[in-house]
Amino acid sequence: MSTVEAKPTVRHPEKAHRPDNPVQRRKPEWLRVKAPVSKEYNETRQLMRTLNLVTVCEEAACPNIGECWKKKHATFMILGSVCTRACAFCNVATGMPDKLDPHEPDNIAVAVGKLGLEHVVITSVDRDDLPDGGAAHFARVIQRLREEAPGTTIEILTPDFLRKEGALEVVVAAKPDVFNHNLETVPRLYPSIRPGARYFHSLRLLDRVKELDPSIFTKSGIMVGLGETAEEVAQVMDDLRSADVDFMTIGQYLQPTPKHAAVDRFVTPDEFKTYERKAYSKGFLMVSASPLTRSSHHAGDDFQRLRAAREAKLTAQAVPAAE
Hints:
globular, LIAS_N, metal ion binding, TIM Barrel, lipoate synthase activity, alpha/beta, 7-stranded parallel β-sheet, 11% strand
């Protein structure tokens, strides 16, 4: 009797037959990180497997995983591990989505408790197949965390809920502390880098969060090194401020595989400092701009600074009014 070996799953089937893009050159010194080998890293990884949880740290091949998991700071990715979009920059698997796990909200609450997280980041794949894009599931996760970890602040990084009427309202009503949705790149590059999304829809999503609940902090980020210009990045900053976004992140794009978009160039640390100064000059409460900046990197510490910056701004505004 012969046996047929199962073919390995193709992580990015939509890219499989495309020609390879040039692979990024040797990374400069400022982008090199140590391999994750700590005891805490292995303990965090084992906890995720035991609770059947997915992390964006692993799925997106984040370069900061060793540093973050050594501190037991994991970023959870809900709604399954397979995305319905096919962005040119992202390493998350694409294809037929997973079924929703009804135990996921409970398991995330357990993990947050075991890791001792004071601030947790919850992100997700895009779920265009679901009528609400996964909004109700986001709300259930937030609710469960409020019940089981009332002292933990909650940051969410959501998809764009494109063509999902009422979905955003469901998530905002659950009252996360921070609502993050990344623009990812400049509008000119959307057709090639983020073809399933619409720049001005994403911008309007962030604006709408503030309309619905001004107390929620809003956050967004972009990658650089994809071929954008400094002028285009400055325009994105202006667009985000027009939507009253509080916090902007800017990090270096890194090419996950030869099938993904090529790195145009490695942006220098000095250029990131220039971006940071420019963003602060435009009125953001918080800016994180560095080669290794990612949406959830140092999110807990950043949240404390973000909250302090808002309090300082409100105090400054109150003084002239009192006078």
